[in-house]
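Example record

One chain of 365 residues, shown exactly as stored in the release files.
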Amino acid sequence: MMHRKFLRVVIVVFLLTIISLGLYRTKTLTDQAQHNPTPTGDLQRFETTSMDVFDSLTQITLYAENKASFDKESKVILEDLKNYHALYDIYNDYPGLNNLKTVNDHAGVQPVVVDQKIIDLLEYSKKIYATTNGKTNVAMGSVLSIWHRYREEGLANPADAQLPPMEELKAASHHTDIDSVVIDNENSTVFLEDPEIRLDVGAIAKGYAAEMVVQNAKESGTRSLLLSLGGNVRVLGAKPNGKPWIVGIQNPSLEDQDNTLAEIRAVDTSLVTSGNYQRYYTVAGNNYNHVIDPKTLMPASYYNSVSVITEHSGMADALSTALFCMPYEEGRLFAEKQKDVQVFWVFKDGSTAQTQGFKKLTEFN
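Predicted structure tokens for this chain:
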């Protein structure tokens, strides 16, 4: 999730520079970014971006009466996101806060008293584990941390980039039992029974946090909102004029001039994409992405990307990871069994496939 403060500053400066040149492309393109307020009745469209949460370019788009109203509303949303960011961080400590890193640090030692937001995420993650037959497993941190270390070292020194030894990965895979994550709701604690198990919520945290933040905004009176966390998009309502938001699916082939493969009409829904083209490193001329298949312990390699459309952003995030790790026939059968879920696959050769109901989302009146 998080890197050092200095690196974050460098990334922000770099992104602001390329954004100003019109060259930045997120993994999921959202509603044709507008930099000037656009009037809709008595409301105007405003947008702000940030790099303060989940190491992602965060985009908040709202319709408000004026800039002051927008600033007030967007600040509340961003502060809410920052809270989830800190709680779900597995890399950094925060003064006076027990987060997921605290839970990992006390694995096999003692239960840790945590915020209800952590318990809610972990309980939801256990349901997701069952739904995806273990393809999305937040208890895989012991394996993922190995890949994270080798990827960071490979990015820092490309000439010396290496793959993790399979023996090391297999040894770590014995410490990924989600049943070892013990939740005590009465005492608000989480305990990792296995001293070597580690939590890593990267496959679900952004989507789940986005969902919770949007629901909180809705309870506070927000009726029309587009929230994008690094391209994980959650839309609340329609635009004030009743028209849907338009959300695009990124072309994984970043060299192609046509950078949008499909555009969908989005109202009260989420779009999340898992792909091989954003976070990867190169070893001996081959690219290795960050989505690790629990079965092979290697980066999944069936597709260039898989996009999931469904209302709950946490579900969309988790299912995109799970489907990215499934062969097409298996994934198709799995997707068709899910309620109100549509999927768009991009294969290694650039061809595409979609679930039966996907086309309806792309039809414009």
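Notes: Confidence is low (pLDDT under 50) at residues 1-37.
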